[in-house]
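Give me structure tokens for this 549-residue protein.
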Amino acid sequence: MLQKLIIRNYAIIDHLEVDFSGNLNVITGETGAGKSIILGALSLILGERADPAVLFDKQAKCVIEGFFKVKRSLVAAFFQEHELDLEDQVLIRREISAAGKSRAFINDTPVNLTQLGELSHFLVDLHQQFDTLELGESDFQREVLDALVNQPSQIQQYQQQYQRYVQVQRQLKQLQDQRDSANKELDYNKFLLDELSEAAFAPNEIEELDEELKVLSHAEEIRNTLSRVYFQLKEDEQPILQQLKQIQSSVQGLTAFHKDAPAIAERLQSAYVELQDITGDIGHMNDQVQFDGARIEIVNERLSLGYKLFKKHSVQTTAELLQIQEKLAGSIEGVLNLDEQLAALEKEQGELEQALRAQAEVITGARVKEAAPFEKSVNSLLAQVGMPNAQLKAAITQGELNAYGQDTIEFLFDANKSGHFAPVGKVASGGELSRLMLCIKSLVAQSVALPTLIFDEIDTGISGEAARQVGFIMEGMARGHQIICITHQPQIAGKADAHYFVFKDASEGKVTTNVRLLSREERINKIAQMMSGEKPTAAALENARELVK
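Here you go.
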């Protein structure tokens, strides 16, 4: 509920404060007095874009403030999502500087216009004279019928499952594309894997074979060298080992004469032991090296195959080749596993679709059940507001599953009982749409808690009994909702719980818009003027008193 609106330095408003009642608030005034300007200011705190040209004083900033009483449960999620402080009263402030810079605040916390617009849906339903285009939109028509069915948990449960259904469909499409792409390379990858598997290289085998080939290719040279060295070390006429042993013994004899001799003797002994080991290893090496022509042929064949695969796969080591083999095996296994994943997803998709169709049937049934009383109520109200020959029909057509069920809902309209119904947005005039919207919102208001409803001259083009009935409808809606209505109709003004009069005030060479809450006698006088002119007749005054009663 909008409790208070403060406007400073906007259009022809210098400073204005309006305290609204919680029921039916009527705003009247002469054409051009500034009634719609007030709504223009209100729209700024609802997230509309600002124009610096609207500043009353070009040197000062414009400030619009709205104080709203809210139900915490309705807005708690929004405040939590955007990390805003939530209180029973929400203050929205919009500032426009002289330079054109705009800032917005919710409870003194800066916010952007998107956030402001999102919050406004919980606070105000602004219905202007030509703001009836959504009446012809399928989403709005479905929302109306669902609001009257008033089973939000049923829709919510369906939508949760539908989100999973869409997610599964998306995953299924991705996997199918992945499988199709993989299948194109599957045969070639299998060929490559078979080739590598048949080669069956062990880790580091190619590098080890390369070393082995070097030994086999130089076996004679290696044996000759090793034999000569072994002979010199151990079997010569004066073997090196024997000479080293003699030298060590000689130095050992000097230990009694020089302090460093024992250390040198010990080192010579270590060298002798090490050289003995080396001699043994040389002998062992020499025994192992044998020329083997058959083995050379086998090694050459393996190396030739290995180098061929190196070149084919653009690698340089056995490890890299084995990594490619492992990757190919994983890729092929992945393609085979895709079929299992696809089967599982297809099964889940089928189960979800079956469950969704069952839920959608229930939702459709509830809508169909509500459609007939909805049509009857709307048509009855249309007759009240001066459209006795008009008829509305809610056509429900079942189709593919969507986020809201399986129905396409379309409001069809016949203005003259011709029997020819057509989409409401195509055949209804502006005035017919306005009154039709009022009738629909009055019905919705009986089922769900709507935010503050604002009607800007919705009564254009009607008078007399039709205007009186519009007043009754608004009066009924105001019992459970706050309504703010700009009107030229005395029949509607007479139903107000609070009547505000907008007027222009000329002082100090400036013309400004002001508004005041009328007393009962002032209301009677203004309503009489609305009926008979600036100087109301006694009959007009009496009629005004009747309307105010």
